[in-house]
Amino acid sequence: MIRGLFKLILVVVVVAVVAAFLLGYDIRDFPGIGPDGPVGTSGSEKAREVGAEIGERTAQAADATRRAIEDGALTSKIKAKMALDDTVKALSLDVDTRAGVVTLTGMVRSEGERQRALALARETEGVTQVVDRLQLK
């Protein structure tokens, strides 16, 4: 019983420390701990600094999320176009998008299928470049 309680407390402490680390907390951020803290800084000034840092990290995360969603939307549009096109075998092709650059990989049955797949990707709004890694069977 005591061992189980001790293990539970140990797990909770480890999870809290890992969560604090992943959220970017530093032991020196807490008042009275560590010599590196700013001398004479009031609590409200420190709170503003921490708040600004958290706001900046949140903005960066939101921007990265927005870019990932845009890339996913481009990939989906291109795959849908390929699925609706009779000349392209969409299931055998892989579409990867990063910052508007689309990479097509996979096996195509003919040069005509390759050109059509590339054209479908190029004509999609938001695509800045298409990288051809398609191979003929």
- Can you count the helices? 3
Shape label: elongated
Arithmetic mean pLDDT:
83
DSSP strand count: 3
Q: Termini separation (Å)?
A: 65 Å
Low-confidence stretches: none
Strand content: 15-25%
Our Rg estimate from Cα atoms comes to 26 Å
Q: What summary fits the major beta sheet?
A: 3 strands, mixed
**Multimerization state:** single chain
Please state how the strands of the largest beta sheet are arranged side by side.
1-2-3
Please write the string of helix (H) and strand (E) elements: HHEEHE
CATH architecture: 2-Layer Sandwich
Give helix % range: 40-55%
Structural class: alpha+beta
Structure characterization notes:
55% of the residues lie in helices and 16% in strands. It is an alpha+beta fold and 137 residues long. It has a single domain, classed as Histidine-containing Protein, Chain: A (2-Layer Sandwich). The protein has a three-stranded mixed β-sheet.
Short synopsis of the structure:
With 137 residues, the chain is an alpha+beta fold. The chain has helices at 2-22, 43-84, 111-122, and strands at residues 93-98, 101-108, 129-136.
Secondary structure elements and their pairing?
Elements: H1 2-22, H2 43-84, E1 93-98, E2 101-108, H3 111-122, E3 129-136
Parallel strand pairs: 2-3
Antiparallel strand pairs: 1-2
